[in-house]
Description:
Layout: H1 2-13, H2 16-26, H3 38-45, H4 67-70, H5 75-87, H6 93-98, H7 103-140
Amino acid sequence: MIEVLLSYRLLFGQHAGSRQLFREKKQEKAKCNGVLDPLLISLCGDAKVADFGGAEDLLRERGVYNAPTNFPHLGPRLMEFQDYSNSQRPRDMWEVWNDPRDPERLLTFKAVIIFGSMSMVIGGLQLLMAVAQFVAAFLIE
């Protein structure tokens, strides 16, 4: 049972965007007979799990999980999910900008954008100065 609850926490509750998605769109669909389970709200919608009979320590947020230890039954399926997620690559500039999985690519992309933009601005200023010098030289003669 703890494994299933921990998998909900891992998939839906450990990322601020996932928690927000659950609260905004999925919370209404999770109701059973018009009632929403408070444990489900805590697991999927809150940053910190409320204390439900001592389960708070077992369901706390972790940075790293050991699949065989933490998920003895669901571990292989979660590893397949992770492999699939890691194999997906960003398809456009917006996805590259917002993808935290590859920090080297993100840093390179941001550096190219920043230095490229600065180079274009400096090039535009050089062009304006050259035109101003040409006009000044033409008016002086």
